[in-house]
Design brief:
Rossmann fold, Heat Shock Protein 90, seven-stranded mixed sheet, 47% helix, 16% strand
């Protein structure tokens, strides 16, 4: 059995949920600290009385716990003792719980840490608490020595009282110093946690962005083949029945491209089309879709404040975000209920967003609400409370990423039994911009045939692009990868290079750099279904981006713009009518 001295240096850990206690013990034991996991608050007092340096206590362990024995021990601890507690707070998201943390003050000497926290923060807090406890032991030793000295010399009771008063004064002074040190430590911890949280969020989004980028590349390639084929049918066929079927398939491809963009939005790797949108028009546009998706058991309300300005957002992403929020709210109301959509100008809560004018868009339900431990995790990618196969955990992450990338933010307000409100905060816009005109599908041949090199590793996509360009009258050569494309460039100079971005071996970006070294004036187009637009823009230079899945009209116009920029006709990249985008 450990000695009393050893027991008085140990850390007691109370974290009843999951493996938190074992993980923290493992981190601290690697620093040579003795740790013991205590099952609950009810038995914590006995463990402290048996000897302890400090206690690490998860906030949720106090919820509904029998803490009578612990408070009784705290009341009867010696005058030299002010036992330290390190309390791990759940991240404060949403409305405060009335009285939920008031009982923490009864514990006395506290170091408060907000989760999530890193190992360094935990080690620092534990070391600080143990140092404070060791100083208390020194005070105990001083008191014991003085008591023995008083007994041996036969000092009077009055002298002993004076000694105790002096000791109490010193302990009080030291306690104030410890409190001040704790305040400084808390300020450092808060700042460190703020930086750490931003870094963790960035790393999450980076990892998810890499995963979804590959998925988007393959999925958009498939859509591109189908859409290219449908465009060729519409261009060549005179059969109205066939043309009608092809148009339906083409529009389905456009919807598929839209879904890919919505999948990528939560990773904040998507290039959003930020425009000033009319929120009343936005609500009118999603009203029927939401009503159809939710069924008759859900009552709906839509309200836009009369003085509400437009908001800077991507209309497609906002539509999907509102639909996702509505479906989540429905799932929280198994027996039916009410969902209210509202929009109004509002001042940002302190510390939430930079200064500026914002519009608050809220989706509020009458469901069961959420507990604090669930509320703290809802924006994390892949976190879901739904059963296996019933939820991906991406819906709220998409909303969060879209709002952040739009220059605003998102937050959730919820209490058990009080329903849930999800808020999307967007920058307010001034005058609403008119929607750009849509270019009709290309039906004419190219203004002048050109020699074009296509570099694409997907055989079906490459064949579809070759067929489309040949139908427009161009002379096309093709290469199945970057290395073959480089050999073709070295053999003969084309008038235009069109390359995929994500290819094995030599990527499209590397191929463009080498092509630019061979032919500085060669116009280039990069065709991509990948989401990492920052990397693409860095490699692009003066070239054009053609997003998969693209229509024949977009392909034809991109080619004409690229060729015109070389011929010096005055038509530069980005001029002329806008490209048609999938709706």
């Amino acid at each position: 059995m450990p000695t009393l001295e050893a027991r008085e240096q140990r850390l007691l850990i109370v974290a009843p949920h999951g493996r938190d206690a074992e993980v923290m013990a493992g981190v601290l034991q690697r620093d040579g600290l003795a740790c013991e996991v205590v099952p609950d608050v009810a038995t914590l007092a006995a463990s402290i009385e048996d000897g302890a340096g400090a206690a690490i206590l998860a906030e949720e362990a106090l919820h509904g716990a029998d803490s009578a024995a612990l408070h009784a021990w705290l009341e009867r601890q010696g005058p030299w003792s002010d036992f330290p507690f390190i309390v791990l707070l759940a991240k404060a998201i949403g409305l405060p719980q009335p009285g939920a943390r008031a009982r923490l003050a009864t514990l006395g000497n506290l170091i408060l840490l907000e989760r999530p926290l890193n190992a360094e923060t935990l080690r620092s807090a534990a070391a600080s608490a143990l140092r404070a406890r060791r100083r208390q032991y020194q005070a105990r030793a001083v008191l014991a020595d003085r008591e023995r000295t008083a007994a041996s010399l036969g000092r009077s009771q009055a002298a002993l009282v004076a000694l105790n008063e002096t000791l109490e004064s010193r302990i009080e002074e030291r306690t104030r110093a410890l409190a001040q040190a704790n305040d400084r430590l808390m300020n450092e911890v808060i700042e460190r946690e703020r930086v750490q949280q931003a870094m963790v969020q960035y790393q999450k989004m980076e990892a998810v962005g890499r995963l979804t980028g590959g998925i988007a590349h393959d999925f958009n390639n498939l859509l591109n083949v189908v859409q290219g084929s449908m465009d060729l049918i519409l261009l060549k066929s005179q059969d109205e029945f066939v043309r009608a079927r092809a148009e339906i398939a083409r529009r389905s491809c456009q919807r598929g491209g839209k879904l890919t963009g919505q999948l990528l939005a939560f990773a904040r790797n998507q290039s959003l089309d930020l425009r000033a949108i009319d929120l009343q028009a936005l609500f009118d546009g999603v009203r029927e879709l939401v009503a159809t998706s939710l069924g008759s058991s859900i009552r709906l309300g839509f309200e836009v404040a009369p003085d509400c300005p437009g908001a800077l957002a991507d209309a497609n992403q906002m539509e999907m975000a509102l639909l996702n929020l509505a479906i989540n709210a429905r799932d929280a109301m198994q027996d039916g209920g009410r969902i209210d959509f509202s929009a109004a100008p509002a001042a940002s809560p302190a510390g939430f967003l930079p200064d500026g004018d914002y519009v608050r868009i809220a989706v509020a339900d009458s469901g069961a609400g959420m507990a604090p431990d669930i509320l703290a995790k809802v924006f994390e990618p892949f976190f879901t409370t739904k059963g296996v196969g019933k939820g991906t955990g991406l819906g709220l992450s998409q909303v969060y990423g879209m709002a952040q990338q739009s220059g605003g933010g998102a937050r959730i307000l919820s209490e058990p039994g009080q329903g849930t409100t999800v808020e999307i905060w967007l920058r307010a816009a001034g005058t609403l911009d008119a929607a750009p005109p849509v270019r009709a599908a290309a039906r004419a041949a190219a203004a002048r045939p050109a020699r074009i090199l296509i570099v694409e590793d997907d055989d079906f996509v490459r064949e579809s692009m070759v067929s489309s360009l040949e139908a427009l009258g161009h002379q096309v050569t093709q290469a199945a990868d970057g290395a073959a494309g480089l050999r073709a460039l070295e053999a003969a100079a084309p008038e235009l290079l069109i390359t995929d971005y994500l290819m094995p071996g030599i990527t499209g970006a590397e191929l463009m750099e080498r092509a630019r070294a061979l032919y500085p004036e060669l116009p280039m187009i990069i065709a991509t279904g990948y989401a990492d637009m920052k990397a693409i823009e860095q490699a692009l230079g003066d070239g054009l981006v053609l997003r998969k899945p693209f229509q024949l009209a977009e392909l034809a116009l991109s080619v004409e713009r690229a060729l015109a920029s070389r011929r010096g006709t005055g038509l530069q990249p980005g001029s002329g009518p806008p490209l048609e985008r999938p709706a």
